[in-house]
Amino acid sequence: MTTGLGVVIPAYQAERTLARAVASARACGAEEVVVVDDGSTDSTAALARSLGCTTLVQSNAGAAAARRAGVRACTAAVIVLLDADDELVPSGVARSLALLPSRGADCAGVGGVTLAVAPGGGERTMRARRRRVRLDDLLRDGFAPGAPAAIVWRAPVLRAAVADAPPGLWPAYAEDYELTVRAVGSGHLEFHDEVSARYTLAGGKSTHDPMRSIAASEAIRLHYAGVHAVPVHPRPPRALRARVLLREAMNLRAGGPRTHPRYGALILRAAAADPGLVAAMTARKVRDGLSRRRRRAAR
Length: 299
Fold this sequence. Notes:
There is one protein chain. By secondary structure, the chain is of the alpha/beta class. It has two domains: about 5-230, Alpha-Beta Complex (Spore Coat Polysaccharide Biosynthesis Protein SpsA, Chain A), CATH 3.90.550; about 235-299, no CATH class. Helix content is about 45%, strand content about 20%. It has twelve helices and ten strands. Strands 1, 2, 3, 4, 5, 6, 7, 8, 9 and 10 form a ten-stranded mixed beta sheet that branches. Keywords: Transferase. InterPro entries: Glyco_trans_2-like, Nucleotide-diphossugar_trans. It holds the Pfam family Glycos_transf_2. This is Glycosyl transferase family 2. GO terms for molecular function: transferase activity.
C-alpha cells in the first residue's frame, strides 16, 4: 500500500484524451494511477500501459462499474476519481491534500472548485453549495456537490463505498451521486475555493437524457434515505419536471452565454412547474455571489 495519492481513471474509447488526464495526475504527485479500460475497441489499454499506469480491462459495463473496480485495485492512502477526458489542477489538489489530514476522522474528503469547459472553449466555475456537506444535505439536494475529480477522498471511505453493503442501486445515470452518498455516510465533505479540476462538458448521458438522470437521482435519494433513516419525502411530478427543465437550461448555458433563445423559456417553464424551487435557486445564486465578493474583498 502506498502512503500518497492515487488516481483512478475509468476509460472508454479514450485514446485521444487519456494522456492528458494521466499527465495531470502525475503533475499532482500521484504515486499510483489506475486506468480501467471499460471494453474499449481503440488503443486505450495499450496507451495506459505505455504511460506506466496500473491497467485493468473489463467488458463494457459503464463508468460506475469501472470506477468501482479501480477503487478496489488502488492501494493509495487517498484517491481522486478522474474521468479520462478531464484534468486535475495541481494547486487545487495540493490544497485539498494539505487540508485533509487536519480534518477530523469523520471528514470523508476535501474538495475544491470545478472549472467546467464547454465544447466551444467557454469556461465557468462550479462550486459546492456549502463549505461542509453532510449526508442529509446530499439527500435533500438530490445531486453531487461537484465533479468527481474535484474531491480528494480518504481511501478507506471509498473502498467501503464500493463494497456490497448496504445494497446499491448502481443505475446507468447519476452514478457519481450514488457513490458520493455512499462514501459520505455518517461523515461529511469539506470544500475550499481553489480550482481543483477541469471538467469537460462534452454532452454526457445527463446532457442527452436529463429526465433519466433526474429520475435516477430521485430513486437514489429515496433509497438511501430509507437505508439511513433520513426523513426526506418523494418529490411530486411537477418538482421533478422543473428539475429536468433546469438541467436542460444548464446544458444550454454550458455551450456559451445565457443568450441561447431557449434558455429563458426553459427557466420560465421551470418556474411555472415549481415556483419555490426557482425562487430558492435564484436567491442562492445571489447569496453565493455576495459571499464570493466578500471573500475576495477580505483577501
